[in-house]
Specification:
106 residues; mainly beta; four-stranded mixed beta sheet; rod-shaped
């Protein structure tokens, strides 16, 4: 047998056939994870993942591939914040960032 689904690890094996009916259950392992991003000040910082704006804080991602992803937070009157988030299989990892106010007057 072979069971496949997008963003899940393939499961394969051998089933011996006989006269009796068999029901088999297969649990596929996810090849994705999620991140939650919280910022202080808490709301309305723009969230970018890998250079694409995906929402505002507080933010919870859709499925992300297993990898390191660049994260950028931007909010008016605050310095932008750049970091890297590592996504792990089947996990939701919460990242909390404190943004620093930009006191430069133009």
């Amino acid at each position: 047998y072979r069971v496949e689904a997008p963003m899940y690890a393939t499961e394969a094996g051998i089933i011996e056939l006989g006269d009796e009916q068999r029901i088999m259950s297969v649990a596929l392992k996810p090849l994705f994870g999620h991140v939650e991003i919280i910022s202080q000040p808490e709301d309305s910082a723009k969230v970018y993942i890998d250079g694409t704006q995906v929402g505002f804080t507080p933010y919870k991602s859709d499925r992300l591939s297993l990898n390191k992803h660049s994260i950028r937070l931007e909010k008016d009157f605050y310095f932008p914040l750049d970091t890297v988030a590592e996504v792990k299989a089947g996990e939701t990892i919460i990242y909390s960032y404190k943004m620093t106010i930009n006191r430069i007057i133009y």
